[in-house]
Amino acid sequence: MERNERKRQFLKWLISNYQHSNPSVNYLLQFLSTNSELMNNILFSEGAKYAPRGIYISFNSNTKLPFIYYKDLLSYTLSDQAFHDIRLNHRFSKQDFYVELDIPHLYQQLYRFDVFEDNPYIPENLQFLMDLEDSLYQISLETKLSLLNKDLNTALEKYDFDKVSYYLTQIEKLKGE
């Protein structure tokens, strides 16, 4: 079976097994699956945010941003932008679109359909960058918690129970993230 046909089969499998919370994302996937020529420039990979043209689609209900389209260092959350760029790209520029999906057992399915491709735009030091991002997030979280605890203690000393309740709620939210 030809590679483009395998990509279309994978998209049909994805559409039949997963429904995105945003109907326009489902329409985009349906559009891609019906046009075999478009598949020349659709690459299923990882690290879409590093590619000149990348699409990140999450089917998890707890994801803050279930769809992101990356284009030349900008990001868009509306799938309409990606849809129009893919259509125009097909006619004019022929750039590749790296599609990153967030579904359970993704790699198993990508390898089953033999459609996974490496993304050459992923930085070589990606693990270092991810570790750095995690460390900075942890430091930021600890600083916010420390400031909230300080404000909580001040509110307790002043018997301001409205503020105490507010600060406790904020602390619980941060610890729950």
From TrEMBL:
Which segments constitute the UPF0302 domain? 6-104
InterPro entries in UniProt:
UPF0302, UPF0302_N, UPF0302_N_sf
Instruction: Report the protein name in the record.
Output: YpiB family protein
